Amino acid sequence: MSSKFIKTLGALVTGLMLVFGASTVRAADSSAPIVIPTHNWSSQVVMAYVIGGIFESMGNNVEYVSADTQAVYESIRQGDVTISHEVWQSTFGASFYAAMAKGGIIDAGTHAAKTLEEVGVPQWVIDENLCPGLPNWEALKNCKDVFATPDSGGKGRILEGPQSWHGQEYPDRVEALLGDDYVVKFAGGADALWAELAAAKKEGRGTIIFNWTPNFTDADGFVFIEWPPYYLGCRKQDGGDSKCGSPIGWLKKAANYKFPKTHPAAYTMFSRLSFNAGQIGQMAALVDIDGMTHEDAAKKWLADNEDVWKPFIGKGM
Amino acid sequence: MCCLAAGLERKIGIDSRIMNQLTNHPKLIQFIGLLVIFSLLCFFIAPSETNVLWRFPSLLAGLPYLINDSVEYLMFDWWPIQVYDPEIEEFEEKPLILQVTRAISASILFLIGLIREIILGGFKTIVTFTSWDFVSENKWARWPALPWTVVAGGAILLGYKLQGKGLAMLAGFSTIYLAVFGQWEPSMQTLSFVLFAAPVSFILGLTLGIWAYKNRNVELTLNPFLNVMQIMPHFSYLVPVMVFFGIGDHAGAIATIIFATPPMVRLTVLGLKRVSPEVLEAGMMSGCSNFQLMYKVLIPTARRDLLIGVNQVIMQCLAMAVIASFIGAKGLGFNLLLSLNGLRIGEAIEQGICIVLIAVVLDRLSLAWANKKTDYFAELTFIKRHKYSLLFLVILVAGSVLAYVGTFIFREGYNYLYIVPHNKGITIKDTLQNGVDWIWDTFFFALKGFNVFLIQEILMPMKAAYLSMPVAATLVLTMGVGYIIGGIRSAAIVGGFILFIALTEWWDRALITMYLMSFAVIVASIIGVTVGTLCAQNAYTAKFILLVCDTFQTFPSFIYLIPVIMLFGVTDTSVCIAVIVYATVPATRYTVEGLRSVSPDLHDAGSMSGVNRLQRWIKIELPMSFPHMALGVNQTVVFALSMVIIGAMIGTDDLGQYILKALSDKNGTGNGLTLGLCVAFIGLAVDQVIRTWANERKKVLGLA
Q1: Complex ipTM, two decimals?
Q2: What share of chain A in percent tops pLDDT 70?
Q3: What is the pTM (predicted TM-score) of this model?
Q4: What is the tens place of the pLDDT at every residue in A214-244?
């Protein structure tokens, strides 16, 4: 089996794939597009366009594809998607590392922003002292009635995000810490969470929903419940007893393993890129509060914040 | 049975009139007996996890893993080949199947891109034939977009050609709406997606249909697949498609094609079978070859049925527009999902209207095409024959000139005569949002009261009742119903379906799905039959309500989720109401059609025997149209099932929730497919019973 034959076969297959022509001369970066995924929340989509804009300012081609938040890591591994710029520790950490273990995805650094993904109550629950002792979790033991709903059978209800976000984590935790007094209900999507928030506000009643920060709900005030602190391995799926809350998490970036080779300049920028919570909040606010489109919001943010993102490209250090 | 009845009579001395009723209706006794057995089983089987009769052991729990491992092996391990990657100038070992499916993906993506760029402009197509480097260096190498005025003009012209002024106006209004409201780009992205998926589904469906028509074995083999595919929820296809083909517009298109092809196959077979033998013989007598017989005789004769199939295909494609965006399809569907996730209801409604408009226009256009008769004898001059093509050319030139002029008018910013950029048009989303807020503000507490009542008094008890059924009792009940109605064969089929579900680990979830479905079906059927009956009394109201049904049926199912989630929150009420609204349509339609199809002779015969209006309805119309109405209920079940699963987007704890979860699961393929089968089997079990019953009734009534 000569290597020539293999080469021919390889060339044939690539030809079949209609890959974008054979570029033999390579300048700094390949001109093949960098595929950026868009998910279904504002800050992520705006940041996709912001990062895309930075890539484009460097002369790269960019493409956007809408993708499922969990499945995207498998797509990055396969090369269907090039990067992911918001890997939330608590929600996506497992999928990210699962894909990494299979090979094909690399850790491209961490944002400055610290994240928290946790269940909590809206500010008015604290202000009106509906459940004395909150945000400490032990307070919940005495006020299951405050959080009961018609379909919860007299128990307090905790509205979790879709089951795909954390699987059995919250049911496990609630069972371990609060026993039979509370039930966890899975919502179908983020919209359901916000609808519940709006309805609870209208009635001035208490509600516990899953939420995260930075998020647009930060503006109205949202208080996360303080569970016993997280430590590695405390969750049931990691062999623990689930008597712990979520960690103050990192927000990472991921990339396909070929990205540094095909687009060295773009990758360098991407690995250096880091946003803090305030900046992510600004991006989300342009859409959620000012009502701009995601593309326009990204353009405006890029125009207003050149001093922030220009250094990411900078030559040398 | 009658002996038993006689025994009963003597023993307990039941009133002889009731006894007569019973002996005249032997099935009634059987049903009563079945219910007694069912209740006894429910009473005596102890609800404990260790009791096999309470919940069967999940013998099929390994099935998803088996499917998954096979798929994984096929996709990622089987037959590795060396592939050269020019990007990193290295050889890589890649499995064969993955390369093949990625090649298919790339070709589909190319075609969708081509259609998209014809309408919206771009450079991807040029990239395919040259390279990214070429396009980056030569900024002129861009395909221009069709100005929106040209597309609008083309739509008006097509409407006029196919039907006349009315349709032309509808097409014109809709396209202009899309442009003016700044939804042009996403709308055309969605349209280009449909313009790819629909023809492929059509050709695929036609080919399979012809094959099935010619070969009885093929038809028999295809039938169960078609049955399952038509009831299987859309979500459950998405995972395997994603594994095989990756994510993007192509994946969305493939999922759509899988979903849209079955009705086309059905209608092809139906249409070809309906061609009268005389036509066929005439063809043979004129010496047609097999090929000629098919393409010159059969297909033109069955043209109308085939074009109705095209209509169905287009509708299915649009119904998938939102769902396909889960695996990467761009366009209105994705934007709608995004708005919903931020609870920007006004914006979501605005985007929903666009999908509905596209759906209605395409529906009307394809129906008009189906109903248009070809004039085989007209002798036309070149100009007359190509009148519309020439007119379109004029529109193209005029539109381009207009767009060019536009560059002088709108020197700064956007050229509105070329393409109205996304969200730069006028918008009524704030008004819509205010409207929604107003409804919410005004009716909040009334709705809340209703919601609490419904949940506490009806839904929760019903759910509890379903969950407290021992699996053995459920199996006996369903098989018994199958036996009474369709004999041993139906009993076996229904039993097989239910047993499959009972042996998976999702039996409780399936019970919840059944509870949601049956509640919705009962309410939808009551509403549908009532409204249908009232409207069927008069030719005009009947026509009107059918039009309303048509319009509602074109709405993609997702649209129904928007208002309910706002009004009723994350509850089963929301899901039920969305399902009821969606599922009432077929119940109404079939009722109207059934009642209207009762022949006037029967009405006259009834009137002569001196029945009044009510008697006529109860004694003549209702029994005569009952079989057709039953088929309506059957459709209602199918609609309700599909919507219950989509209800997972609101938040349910039934099979749908798990299907949704499978989208991002490691074992997603296996779980998704198995769960999808469970849902399909619920529908097929109901279908088996109702269809058998309806067919028998039809025979008895001399309708079949």
Answers
A1: 0.77
A2: 90
A3: 0.83
A4: 887 877 888 999 999 888 888 887 888 888 8
Residue in chain A nearest B96 by alpha carbon = A13
Fold assignment, B437-701: MetI-like fold (1.10.3720)
Contacts of A204 in chain B (CB under 8 A): none
d(C-alpha B354, C-alpha B2), whole Å: 62
The predicted-structure confidence for A24-52, as pLDDT tens digits, reads as follows 344 468 888 899 998 877 788 999 999 99
| Interface check B559 vs A, CB under 8 A | no
Q: Residues of chain A whose pLDDT is less than 50?
A: 1-2, 11, 13-27, 316-317
The tens digit of pLDDT for each residue in A283-296 reads 888 887 787 888 88
> Could you name the CATH architecture of A116-238?
3-Layer(aba) Sandwich (3.40)
Q: Between chains, do A75 and B247 touch, taking CB under 8 Å as contact? A: yes
Q: Hey, are the CB atoms on A188 and B444 less than 8 Å from each other?
A: no
Task: List Cβ neighbours of B53 (8 Å cut-off, separation of 6 or more).
Answer: B41, B45, B470, B471, B472
Tell me the two tokens of residue B387: 């009148």
Q: How confident is the model at residue B704 (pLDDT cuts 50, 70, 90)?
A: low
Q: Is A84 helix (H, G, I), strand (E, B) or coil?
A: strand
Closest CA to B192 of B19, B331, B393, B79: B331
Beta strands in A57-192 (DSSP E): 62-66, 83-88, 105-110, 116-122, 156-160, 182-186
Q: Which fold has domain A31-114+249-313?
A: D-Maltodextrin-Binding Protein; domain 2 (3.40.190)
Q: How far apart are CA A93 and CA A232, in angstroms?
A: 13
B666 interface with A at CB cutoff 8 Å: yes
Please say whether the dihedral angle defined by the alpha carbons of residues A136, A141, A147 and A152, taken in this order, is positive or negative.
positive
